[in-house]
Amino acid sequence: MAPRTKILLTGATGYIGGSILNRFLARPDFQSSFDIRVLVRSPEKAPKFDALGFKSIVGSHTDEEVMVQAVSEVDIVVGLTDCDSIPAAELTIKGLKKHFEETGKQAFFIQTSGTGVYVQLTNGMYTTDVIYDDANPDQIETLAPTQPHRNVDLKILSAENEGFFKSCIVLPSLVYGVATGPLFDSGLSNPHSILIPLMCRVALDRRRAGMIGQGKNVWPNVDINEVADFYPILIEKIIQSPDTVPHGREGIYNLENDKHTSYDVAEAIGKALVALGYGDDSTPLTFTPEEEKKYFGAHVHLIGSDCRCIATRARSFGWDPKLTTADMLGGVQKEIEILIKTGKAELKHFVSGVDPGNIQVSSS
Ligand SMILES: NC(=O)c1ccc[n+]([C@@H]2O[C@H](COP(=O)([O-])OP(=O)(O)OC[C@H]3O[C@@H](n4cnc5c(N)ncnc54)[C@H](OP(=O)(O)O)[C@@H]3O)[C@@H](O)[C@H]2O)c1
């Protein structure tokens, strides 16, 4: 019998992490083919992951002893906590080095970054026409190191050049949909994404949907289940034929299947708000400078940013997403209903963990 592939997944209680674990739970060969360890911060949740067949490790991704040891023991690390955390990346790299020194083998590091690396700051006033293709590493390398998430990605890519591990950096675009399945039904993982729930909460707070500027900025999007589909495909490829897996500068994997303007999202939220009785006017209204500060703080430029890319590499592996912008917009009302029903509709500031980077507003 082939040895089980040892995987460490961080961010198990998260939206994307939980969705990927659900994919493994559904596999008949889950227990026989995989030894999946999960890093969780909550000691209360840890035994519940164990009961499902995972091996929990309690700790933070900044906890050096825990992270380095946990990483050093596995064949594949899947990073899903915070794509802006330099300490998390550094400790993972340290663990990967230990693995190489102890086994002589290069483990794989599947880091989850985001298509925020491609943003142009257009303040909702226009879209741009440079489309970043992940099969074109020369083009990706033109990105400034000050782009969001790029500092962490560059740290990983630079360490990979030392030869003791291989990296695949996955860049989901705007991920949408309320996640479902055992990890969410049991309350272990967070079922909500970042941007659409945020814009719904903001709209509920001001009783009107809104956008930065005219909402003409474009972003790619992808359904949460289709994001979760990709990781097992990549992991299988790593297991079956590791030498054929594009890695390092070639190993950038965008995930998108359609695109939308910020106005499209605001319009769908506006209609849902009125349909649910939380507003009188469905027409989106541009945020005032005071509202921009109140709701988005330092991240306001990202909310009004433009992001253009295509997912060539993931599709070349057979990843075949089907859902489109119409599905995303069609799910907005249901998401608002769930946020309200589950007591999660209160306004929260834009995810404080997201580093807005140091990018400059580009001119039109
Ligand atoms: N959702 C999107 O649209 C999207 C798109 C592109 C990229 N991404 C990126 O993908 C990553 C995961 O996103 P997500 O939507 O799944 O986020 P999420 O639901 O907020 O999940 C974040 C996960 O990271 C864990 N975590 C945070 N800080 C940690 C620490 N110090 N030590 C250990 N665990 C820690 C959280 O654990 P707790 O439960 O303990 O808080 C949670 O499990 C993020 O870097 C995000 O920026 C997301």
Q: How are the elements arranged and paired?
A:
Elements lengths: L4 E6 L4 H11 L4 H4 E7 L5 H7 L2 E4 L5 H9 L3 E4 L6 H18 L3 E6 L7 E2 L10 E2 L3 H4 L9 H11 L4 E8 L1 E3 L5 H4 L9 H12 L3 E2 L6 E6 H17 L11 E4 L2 E4 H14 L9 E2 L2 H8 L3 H4 L1 E2 L2 E2 L1 H5 L8 H6 L1 H10 L23
Parallel strand pairs: 1-2, 1-4, 2-3, 4-5, 5-8, 7-16, 8-12, 9-11, 10-14
Antiparallel strand pairs: 6-15, 11-13
Helix pairs in contact: 1-10, 4-5, 5-7, 9-11, 9-16
NADP nicotinamide-adenine-dinucleotide phosphate binds next to helix 1 and strand 9.
Protein architecture, described:
A seven-stranded parallel sheet has the order 3-2-1-4-5-8-12, with helices on both faces. The chain has a three-stranded mixed sheet with strand order 9-11-13. The chain has a two-stranded antiparallel ribbon with strand order 6-15. The chain has two domains: 5-117 and 133-176 and 223-255, 3-Layer(aba) Sandwich (Rossmann fold); 182-221 and 257-341, Alpha-Beta Complex (UDP-galactose 4-epimerase, domain 1), CATH 3.90.25.10. Helix 4 crosses helix 5 (86-103), helix 5 runs parallel beside helix 7 and helix 9 packs across helix 16. It has helices spanning 15-25, 30-33, 46-52, 64-72, 86-103, 137-140, 150-160, 182-185, 195-206, 224-240, 262-275, 289-296, 300-303, 312-316, 325-330, 332-341; strands at residues 5-10, 34-40, 55-58, 76-79, 107-112, 120-121, 132-133, 165-172, 174-176, 210-211, 218-223, 252-255, 258-261, 285-286, 305-306, 309-310. Helix 5 (86-103) links the parallel strand 4 (76-79) and strand 5 (107-112). The model is unreliable at 359-364 (pLDDT under 50). It has 364 residues and is an alpha/beta fold. 40% of the residues lie in helices and 18% in strands. The longest helix is centred in the first third of the chain and has 18 residues, at 86-103. It has 16 helices and 16 strands. It binds NADP nicotinamide-adenine-dinucleotide phosphate. The site of NADP nicotinamide-adenine-dinucleotide phosphate has 27 residues, from helix 1 and strand 9.
